[in-house]
Amino acid sequence: MTATPASLPLARARRAASLLRQAAALVLATALVLPTLGSRAEAQGRKIPLVRDAETEELLRDYAKPIFQVAGIAQGQVEIILVNDTDFNAFVPDARRMFINIGVIMGAETPGEVIGVIAHEAGHIAGRHLVRLREAVANAQIMAVIGTVLGAGAVVAGASQGAGGLDGGGAAMALSAGSIGQRSLLAYQRGEEAAADKAALRYLELTGQSARGMLKTFERFADQQLVSARYADPYAMSHPMARERYAALEEGARKSRFFDTPAPPALQARHDLVRAKLIAFASHPNVVAREFPASDTSLPAQYARAIAAMQSRGKGALKEIDALIRQQPNNPYFHELRGQALLESGSPREAIPSFQRALALRPNEGQFHIWLGYALVGSNDKALLPEAERVLKAGIQRDPNSGIAYSQLAIALGRQGKQAEADLATAQGLMTSGDVEGARRYAARAQKNLKRGSPAWLQADDIVAYKPPQFGR
């Protein structure tokens, strides 16, 4: 699990509300991907929380890959984005992004319940049900979500000292200061919902997976119509489920020859670990103790208790974390958790070997590169700065819109006397956070000391010359 010190400040979208429209246009024009780490971003006075966790993201990609393949969705077309919200909610604002609340995984006992949600949302994408979004984008709330969450590149490297909820870690657990699951961002017509249901059933059949989990999820939403909307799940409100629609879904699901086929044991084991992890990061340690009592000796329960111990005791949780590593020495996320405990307790040099081990096990994981680079910079050892620079640049190649990667790279470069390059890195980081004006200032300063026509000079020039399109006018 990636690590972040609790003292690291939140990187927020800095543009004023009057520029939100331009920030959204920046997303659509440049097709930015999400940053490497989690975030809290401000949009019209409210905060929209994102969260990045390598372990969770890998699991969701594995869930989605076969579904996307049979749905005809090109590999890499859809980015699955985690939202730091414990409500059960998911939505697709366009054909390139699928937002899934951590609450979906926390509330799902089996992989099939999450896979069913992904399959349903994939049905909307493959069915081109999102064309109407271009009209809805004019709505300020949706504009704020798409523009600020994506275009502003909201980035956080950790959480403030003593904060609860999701903080730090491979999850880069950012605090949730509001719930984007409180209202429907997309309101589909019932016919489109039914079409997405049928498509999801077809995808599950083609991939040899049971629709039992999907049925369990949507059964709950059908029941939501019997209670006040005040107590309804957001997903139920944005995906209205009439009883007759549920009956049709159930009939189709039970016809499948795979209906009673359980998830592979290895996949269920991964799901249980991620679910325990998210519950631990999102809950008070007392809640974790009740959910995963000491009498529960399962690996997920041990994982949850180790995370809770880390959040309350920091470096003092190494005993629990080391016990996990002894059981699964090649689990990169256990080494990541160890590095986090050390880094957040103010021991960055001691954290380096843990992050190095995690990276050795997952050499293509950009988040591991960036957190290793952060630990190297934090060690305050000049001899380690060239390695920090190399590792951070490798992380940026894999996650090119990580604000924390650019900020740490700027520090590493500046301490080596490479001030022009440091200014350029700062400018690039500001661009990922949506601060175009600030980025221009640093880029212009960098240009003065860069060789004219060099790749770095041209990158700075692109930032200086950039003008956000006037979207929607």
UniProtKB/TrEMBL annotation:
<dbReference type="InterPro" id="IPR019734">
    <property type="entry name" value="TPR_rpt"/>
</dbReference>
<dbReference type="GO" id="GO:0016020">
    <property type="term" value="C:membrane"/>
</dbReference>
<dbReference type="Pfam" id="PF13432">
    <property type="entry name" value="TPR_16"/>
</dbReference>
<dbReference type="InterPro" id="IPR051156">
    <property type="entry name" value="Mito/Outer_Membr_Metalloprot"/>
</dbReference>
<dbReference type="Pfam" id="PF01435">
    <property type="entry name" value="Peptidase_M48"/>
</dbReference>
<feature type="repeat" description="TPR">
    <location>
        <begin position="332"/>
        <end position="365"/>
    </location>
</feature>
<keyword id="KW-0862">Zinc</keyword>
<dbReference type="GO" id="GO:0004222">
    <property type="term" value="F:metalloendopeptidase activity"/>
</dbReference>
<keyword id="KW-0378">Hydrolase</keyword>
<dbReference type="GO" id="GO:0046872">
    <property type="term" value="F:metal ion binding"/>
</dbReference>
<keyword id="KW-0482">Metalloprotease</keyword>
<dbReference type="InterPro" id="IPR011990">
    <property type="entry name" value="TPR-like_helical_dom_sf"/>
</dbReference>
<dbReference type="GO" id="GO:0051603">
    <property type="term" value="P:proteolysis involved in protein catabolic process"/>
</dbReference>
<dbReference type="InterPro" id="IPR001915">
    <property type="entry name" value="Peptidase_M48"/>
</dbReference>
<keyword id="KW-0802">TPR repeat</keyword>
<keyword id="KW-0645">Protease</keyword>
<keyword id="KW-0479">Metal-binding</keyword>
<protein>
    <submittedName>
        <fullName>M48 family metalloprotease</fullName>
    </submittedName>
</protein>
<feature type="domain" description="Peptidase M48">
    <location>
        <begin position="60"/>
        <end position="251"/>
    </location>
</feature>
